[in-house]
Amino acid sequence: MTLVHRVLYTRPIISMQDHIARGGGKGIGAANRMEPSAIIDRVLESGLRGRGGAGFPAGRKWQTVAANRTPEAPATVIVNAAEGEPGTFKDRTILRRNPYLVVEGAIIAARAVGADLVVFAMKRSFGGEVDRIRSAIEEAEDVGWSEGLQLEVFEGPDEYLYGEESALLETIDGRWPFPRIVPTFRRGLQTAAAVDEPAPPALVNNTETLANVSRIVARGPAWFRTVGTEQSPGTMVCTVTGRTRRHGVGEVRMGTPLREVIDAIGGGPQRGRTIKAVLSGVANGIITESMLDAPVSYEGLADVGSGLGSGAFIVFDDSVDMASVAAGVARFLAIESCGQCSPCKLDGLTLTQRLTKVCGSEAVSHDYDVIRRRLGTVAERSRCYLATQQEQVISSIIEHFEHEMAAHVSGAAPPVEPELIAELVDIRGGTALLDERHRHKQPDWSYNKNDSGTVPVELYSGARPPWQA
Ligand SMILES: Cc1cc2nc3c(=O)[nH]c(=O)nc-3n(C[C@H](O)[C@H](O)[C@H](O)COP(=O)(O)O)c2cc1C
Ligand code: SF4
Asked: Does domain 16-224 have CATH number 3.40.50.11540?
């Protein structure tokens, strides 16, 4: 059996009573009997790593936040449920099936790091999941889980950067999602601080990370490590989309070969087709056919030059021209760039323009030289990881599929449209719905017919965001 069910329940849990009947609440019960440092030790020993993309050890992050809080400036826990990585739908699926598990994990995290406020950071467009979490919070308050804690829901914008942890804090604080320089464990929500007080530290964890916490605390680190690998204990909730028989979300043991994950969740390639390549979100190097047996784990995918990210596998088969994939990724990242770092926005847009030209029939070898040069500069002096994503993903596609790019430049390949790379809106009946609005999104983040020619940070700094009530 490839699919397992630790955090992704087989059927929706519809009430707190239902959650408790299925073993829920034991994590909170255990945490209430423990010292905060003992809770952190359990999470440390479990080896749980953040499921939001970077894979940072959760226990170490909790330790740092706890060390940075003071009685005057208690910490804040932020549940990152922004889920904006193209190809991922796992957090919304977890929330649809069992929001109580996430609420329980977040409350335990708050006890461990000494927080007095938990904010569930969602997107306004996630209507159904917002409703689910709101009722789970109400029921958690009713059964007394949240004593001494304030639980809030924040409904943010659809921008990709909103999910970046420091941009998330900026947005909750009432500004646009532009990443900060100061780390979140040092300066969290300013709105959580009393006037003239230093801002308290914030613990930002992904939804799936927190969904794992209650069982780690209740059953212990050794239980957690009974599946997975030494460096990647536990399970991963993966999303499979693209050119597969169906699209979906499923939970697998860390270390399961990628090919098996694609077969179990996506039904394998479409009839008569073979898999050519797989994108792991838009944050890691491309995975080619010869790497498909790599284990789905942090180290397993890093060993083949890619990464696990948020377990978002977008599959491309032999009918897909990889120049179109490169142009689609470059466009997504360049549009979503905020422009605080000029190379990220400007080189990103140049890459998009030249790669789109490569997809057509007018590219010359000079375009290719420009692409190579801009890949060398796009991540210079970058404040957040988005620019590095641009550099790494596009460089890896070129490294492995240079012949497909060259075929366009020589005129041997027919023109193709750039692939649509965008956030997932839903997965219905085994079919993923992509955010089609991205086709018309301008580099200034508007959907106007013409771009203003300026960057989001110049246009919106100081402006009241429309999603603020
Ligand atoms: C451009 C960008 C977008 C991101 N979007 C998300 C997101 O939608 N959800 C998420 O959980 N993490 C996202 N992250 C990662 C967060 O910054 C952060 O690492 C994560 O919330 C930490 O939680 P974890 O340690 O539990 O993974 C993003 C990072 C970057 C650079
Ligand atoms: S790297 Fe790009 S997205 Fe990140 S802060 Fe700089 S300009 Fe904005």
From this structure: yes
